[in-house]
Amino acid sequence: MMAALSVLSFSLLVAAGSFAAGVAGAMTGLGGGVVLIPMLTLGFGVDIRYAMGASLVSVIATSSGAAAAFVREGYTNIRVGMLLEIATSLGAILGAVIAVWVHPSWIAFILGLVLLHAAYTSLRSNSPADLAGEIAARDRFSRALHLDGTYPTANGMVAYHVQSVPAGFALMGVAGILSGLLGIGSGVIKVLAMDRVMKLPFKVSTTTSNFMIGVTAAASAGIYLGKGYIDPGLSMPVMLGVLAGSLLGAKLLANAPVKQLRLLFGIVIAALAIEMIYNSLTGRFQ
Amino acid sequence: MSAPDVRVEPRELEIRLGNLLRIGVTMAAGVVVTGGIIYLYRHGYEVSGYHDFRGEPAALRTFSGILSESAQFHGRGIMQLGLLVLIATPIARVAFAAYGFARQRDWMYAGISTLVLLLLLYGLLVSK
Q1: Beta-carbon separation of B120 and A89 below 8 A
Q2: Best residue in A46, A49, A52, A82 to probe B by mutation, most B CBs within 10 Å?
Q3: Which residue of A1, A200, A229, B87 could cross-link A224, Cys pair, CB 3.0 to 4.6 Å?
Q4: Predicted ipTM?
Q5: What's the gap between Cα A140 and its chain centre?
Q6: pLDDT in tens, B76-128
Q7: What is the gyration radius of the CA atoms in chain B, in angstroms?
Q8: Euclidean distance between the first and the last CA atom of chain A, given in angstroms as a whole number
Q9: Can you say whether the dihedral through the CA atoms of A52, A57, A60, A65 is positive or negative?
Q10: How many angstroms away from the CA of B115 is the closest CA of chain A?
Q11: Is B56–A228 a contact, with Cβ atoms under 8 angstroms apart?
C-alpha cells in the first residue's frame, strides 16, 4: 500500500503516468486505455470502479482527438462504422448495466484476460494481412447495405469489398459489452472484427475502429456517470495526460521503430495482465 | 434506383464532422483545465484518496447538479461539466452524420445513424 499523497502530487504523478500510457498507446495502435486501469489500481491503489470511469472518459478524448486527422486521410468507412455502432452501442449499454452487478474481482479477472489477448496481438510479429484488391465473392449484406468503399494508396484509390457482415456485427457486440463492462475502448477486438473477419484493409480498420471507440464509450459513459463511477478529481489528470500523450505519440509515429515498440509494450501488457489476474484471484479487488 | 455515391459529397461532410470532434474535445479539455486549476488551488494540499469506492455525490451525477456546482465555481463541478461536454461530443457527431445522410437522401443510413443516436441518448438520459 502506498503512502497517502497530497491531491497535487497524486494528480501530477497520475498525469505523468497517463501521458506515458497515451504515447505508448498511440504508437502501438493499442490505445492508451488498455494500461490505465492496471496502472491506477495496482500502482496508485485506486478502486477499480473509479479507474474504469476515468479510463472510459479518456477513451472518448483520444478517439475524438485523433479522428479529425484520420478523416482527412480518407480511410474511415463511415457506413461500416455506423452500422456496426448499432451492435457496439447495444453491447456497451448492456455491459455498463452488468458492470454494476458484477463483483470487482470478476471485472479485474476479465480485464486480465482481455489484456492477455491484447499482448498476444501485439507480440505476434506478422504484419497485418492487407487484402485490398483480392478478388472475393461479394457479401450480400455488404451489397444490400452499400458498405464497399475505396481508400487511398500509393497507387491511387483502391476499391475493397466488405465480407462476413453478420460475423463482424456479432463480434462488435462482444467488443461493446467488454467496453461497457470494463471501461475500455476495445480497439483491439474492433480491429480484429474488421481486419480479419470483414476483410477491410488494415488502415481502414484501424481508423474506422478509432471513430467507433468514442461513440461506443459515449453509450456507457452516461450510465457510469449516473452510477457515480466518474470522479472529476481523478479523471482530470488521467484524461488530460492521455490526450496529450496520444497526440504526441501520433506525431512521433512516422519515424518510430514500431515493431520493437509493439514487442516492448506487449511484454508490459502481458505482465500487467498476469498481475491483474493474480490480484483478482487473491481477493485484492474488493 | 442506383446505389448512392459513397465518395463525392460525404468527404466534405466528413471533414466538417472531424473538425466538430476536435472542437468538442478542445472545449472539453479547456473546461476541465479551468476546473482543475480551481480544484488544485483550493484542495491541492489535502490528502488524496480513491482507495474506497463511495460513488460520486448526487450533485456530480446529474445534469442539474453539475450545472449548479459549476455555477458556484466549484472546481469539481466545472471539471465534471468538461467531462460532460466530452461525452456529448461523439453523440453530436452521430446526430450530424444522421443529418448529413438525410441531406444526401440516403435514407437507409439516416435511419441507421438515428437508431445509434437513440441508443446513445438512452444510455445518457434514460438508463439511470
Answers
A1: yes
A2: A82
A3: A229
A4: 0.89
A5: 29
A6: 999 999 999 999 999 998 998 899 899 889 999 999 999 999 999 999 887 65
A7: 19
A8: 15
A9: negative
A10: 7
A11: yes
